[in-house]
Design a protein that fits this description.
Helix content: 25-40%
Radius of gyration: 22 Å
Number of strands: 7
CATH architecture: 2-Layer Sandwich
Strand order of the largest sheet: 1-7-6-5-4-3-2
Shape: elongated
CATH topology: Alpha-D-Glucose-1,6-Bisphosphate, Chain A, domain 4
Low-confidence stretches: 166-170
Number of helices: 3
Order of helices and strands: HEHEEEEEEH
Largest sheet: 7 strands, antiparallel
Number of domains: 1
Mean pLDDT: 82
CATH class: Alpha Beta
Distance between the termini: 85 Å
Strand content: 25-35%
Amino acid sequence: MNIKTIGIILLGFFLALMIGSFILPTELNIERAVLVEATPEALYPSLSDLSKWNDWEPWGTGTTSEQTTGVGATRGWPGGGQLILSELKEDEVHYQVHNLAVPTSGFLALQPVEGGTAVVWVHQSQTGFGPISRIAGWAARGELAIELDNGLAKLKESAERSTAPSKKMPPGG
């Protein structure tokens, strides 16, 4: 094979990759869930009070505004970005993330099930319309899903530890 043939093959591969990237979605919707052995009422404060997110949130320690609960409460990260509570329902906490390159939002929902509560985390963002943005978003999707799983695992551990019945010594024991 000569240099010209190799160049044509590489150019063809690159063009196919760029054209093929347009079949990738521009929206990333990631949904993860965990079963926690606790009631929705016991879990809700861990979701609706941003000062409690340090116990489980997967993106590192953030700083909260003076207002830590309710619509408008904010949580920021040293590297940039700010999470703002946008809607609170009896069984859901909705948020938006600002100061990132792409619009991002999501919610955490509490669903009572046998044996506890299913905590469902839905995280939604845009990738951009260009081929490079779509490929980068598609590649980052798996890492983000792992981060959400890690956060839910920490939430489960924290909630089950705090709601575990205390073991009392029997009288005279």
